[in-house]
UniProtKB/TrEMBL annotation:
Its cofactor is FAD. Gene3D superfamilies: 3.30.70.2450, FAD/NAD(P)-binding domain (3.50.50.60). GO terms for molecular function: FAD binding; oxidoreductase activity, acting on paired donors, with incorporation or reduction of molecular oxygen, NAD(P)H as one donor, and incorporation of one atom of oxygen. This is FAD/NAD(P)-binding domain-containing protein. Pfam families: FAD_binding_3. Keywords: FAD, Flavoprotein, Oxidoreductase.
């Protein structure tokens, strides 16, 4: 089997590594000249760590990253409301791990470059995809400006891992991407500032109707991610101009620009959206190409990596002759259901919890924070919380036929 993966972002690279382990050859096509460097994901939940372990990259991720300890909700004065000690489940081999996306991308790329079954083509912008009964193809614009030409790549399947503006999804469904866009933009900043000095934990969610934010340590050398909300009317220039006042007002110690070292300021519109289907013929969608959610709670790439883990199991089953193509319908059905039943409601509540809740009554009125509070007194409730970290997982190997009931490999 030969699979064309559109997009060499984290989901595409992990999918390629998983397929290589199943002896499946992949060609990755990416419009950029190298991996994306923007400040986005950093926290990967145990369900995603499971997939990275299968892809053979966990040791290197742990070498460069770290396992965070406590998660705390606070009011805007920085006072604790309630929290989850050792939220990462550090006793588990699948403990939540932190590594900024650009550093994760480097680790994944190094592993892919060592795999002879993986070929990566940069500067290769896919403009359309198609499939028939026997094959799938992608048409891409390649080459430098003024020398651009079109090339066609053929394989058995196309996997669209080309992110939020996916051209694969647009080819299949046009602008149809049902869901909603929040009336807020999130400003993701990376900053050196000693939050520990003010008693902050590794992950902090600050509940406030105006100055809500997340502050989390993202590297071993003390870089922090501060993501806060801004009015959607503000342009990038206004966002950059407002940032010092925003920091001074909301961060502990009320710092002035000389008190911290700011590395990045990245504005993002935030969405809850899911494609109508993750399979059309021989074309599949995964991760941000298939679904989006706001970043509070870190379910975006975590959900995407769980998708590609499942998709790899389906394709591996077909390659081994223990599953037929109908397993891809299961992939579509189950992964969409997980987004609708878990990722969308949980990530939406995470955002509303920080931005539209009264911090004074949060542990009484907010069902989740009530549970977090109870978990500090009742181990059974804590066990439930820990188990919920795996709620988006699904074992697609259960649909593989037993050895006595093998189906003929079709490809
Ligand atoms: C501020 C912020 C914080 C976040 N924090 C977290 C977090 O802590 N944990 C978490 O799990 N998630 C988090 N997320 C979400 C996470 O960053 C995304 O879910 C993740 O990056 C999606 O990965 P992807 O591989 O699907 O897409 P992308 O990372 O967007 O990669 C897509 C790739 O496809 C390529 N491409 C695009 N179009 C084409 C084309 N036409 N042809 C060829 N190639 C193409 C691009 O160049 C890119 O390399 C966060 C997001 C934001 C904005």
């Amino acid at each position: 089997m030969h699979v064309i993966i559109v997009g060499a972002g984290p989901s595409g690279l992990v999918l390629a590594l998983l397929l290589a382990k199943a002896n499946i050859r992949t060609t990755l096509l990416d419009s950029a000249s190298t991996i994306d460097d923007r400040p986005r994901a950093a926290h990967y939940a145990p369900s995603a760590i499971q997939v990275m372990a299968r892809a053979g990259v966990l040791e290197d991720i742990r070498r460069d990253g770290f396992i965070p300890m406590n998660m705390m909700w606070r009011n805007v004065k920085g006072e604790p409301i309630t929290g989850i000690p050792k939220v990462s489940q550090p006793w588990s081999p699948e403990a939540m791990t932190v590594l900024p996306l650009n550093m994760l991308g480097k680790v994944l790329l190094e592993h892919c470059e060592k795999e002879e079954r993986i070929e990566i083509k940069w500067n290769c912008k896919v403009v359309s995809v198609g499939s028939d009964a026997g094959k799938a193809w992608a048409v891409a614009e390649v080459g430098r400006e003024f020398e651009k030409r079109e090339e066609r790549y053929e394989g058995d399947y196309i996997c669209g891992c080309d992110g939020a503006n996916s051209q694969v999804r647009r080819t299949l469904f046009g602008n149809e991407f049902p869901g909603n866009t929040w009336d807020a933009q999130i400003i993701a900043t990376n900053v050196y500032y000693p939050f520990e000095k003010f008693g902050y934990d590794d992950i902090n969610f600050i509940i406030d109707n105006e100055d809500y934010y997340m502050a989390a340590k993202i590297t071993n050398d003390g870089l922090w991610r501060v993501s806060y909300g801004e009015d959607t009317k503000h342009t990038l220039d206004q966002v950059v101009a407002n940032q010092p006042a925003k920091y001074e007002r909301m961060l502990p110690g009320h710092p002035k620009p000389g008190d911290y070292k700011l590395l990045n300021v990245g504005p993002y519109r935030i969405h809850q959206r899911c494609a109508p289907s993750f399979r059309v013929g021989r074309i599949l969608l995964a991760a941000d190409a298939a679904h989006l959610c706001n970043p509070f709670g870190g379910l975006g790439l975590t959900g995407g990596l769980v998708d590609v883990g499942g998709l790899a199991e389906c394709l591996e089953g077909m390659e081994k002759g223990v599953a037929d193509e109908s397993i891809l319908n299961k992939y579509d059905e189950i992964r969409r259901q997980m987004w609708h039943d878990v990722i969308n409601p949980v990530s939406s509540s995470n955002f509303l919890r920080v931005s539209a809740t009264d911090p004074e009554t949060a542990t009484v009125k907010d069902e989740f924070l009530k549970m977090v509070d109870e978990a500090s007194r009742d181990q059974k409730v804590r066990d439930e919380l820990d188990k919920a970290m795996y709620a988006i997982c699904h074992d697609f190997k259960q649909y593989w036929k037993t050895p006595g009931n093998r189906v003929e490999a079709k490809l």
